[in-house]
Design a protein that fits this description.
Blueprint (H helix, E strand, L loop, with lengths): L1 H22 L9 H54 L4 H34 L4 H7 L2 H13 L3 H22 L1
Length: about 180
């Protein structure tokens, strides 16, 4: 009996110790790398979209300012060309008109190059690729305007650039 009593006391003393040992659950700690990566990715996407929208807005500003100036210059070029055809223009006026035409053509080339760069940036930036489909072709519209100006059709070149501005505005609205 003495043995049974000692054995039962030992069992009673060891029983809580074994329950504590078994009660502790082992868990692996979760790292928040996935959450921070997602937050960082969404922040990068927002930053890229904001930067892209700013560049589209800058191109719209450049084009509208250029179109405003082109309207006056093209009227002056048309009037000077008409005077030259009638023989009423002197050599200085003809030279000034040719210089204005060259200036407009160079400006159109610069506009087209800026739009080419914008298209390339949107195509190469993964966060902006979804907007590239709407943006694609604006440089071609500027190239068309450049060709029209080279042919002396400055008014039509301005109309082509208005189409480019409309398309850029649509892209900007899509990006908000």
């Amino acid at each position: 009996m003495k043995r049974a009593a000692i054995l039962s006391i030992i069992c009673l003393l060891l029983l809580p110790a074994s329950s504590f040992a078994q009660g502790r659950q082992r868990t692996t700690t979760r790292r928040n790398t996935q959450k921070t990566t997602r937050a960082g990715t969404s922040q990068n996407t927002a930053d890229a979209r904001t930067g892209g929208a700013k560049r589209v807005g800058d191109q719209i500003k450049i084009l509208t300012r250029f179109l405003y100036l082109l309207g006056g210059v093209s009227k002056g070029i048309e009037a000077a060309d008409a005077a030259a055809q009638r023989g009423e223009a002197n050599q200085a006026q003809v030279d000034q008109t040719n210089q204005s035409k060259t200036s407009v053509k160079n400006s159109l080339r610069n506009v087209r190059e800026g739009l080419d760069k914008l298209e390339i940036d949107f195509r190469a930036t993964p966060e902006l690729q979804r907007y590239y489909t709407s943006l694609a072709g604006v440089a071609a519209g500027a190239a068309s305007a450049e060709d029209q100006a080279a042919a002396g059709q400055f008014d039509q070149a301005g109309r082509s650039l208005l189409g480019v501005v409309n398309r850029l505005t649509d892209v900007l609205l899509e990006m908000r």
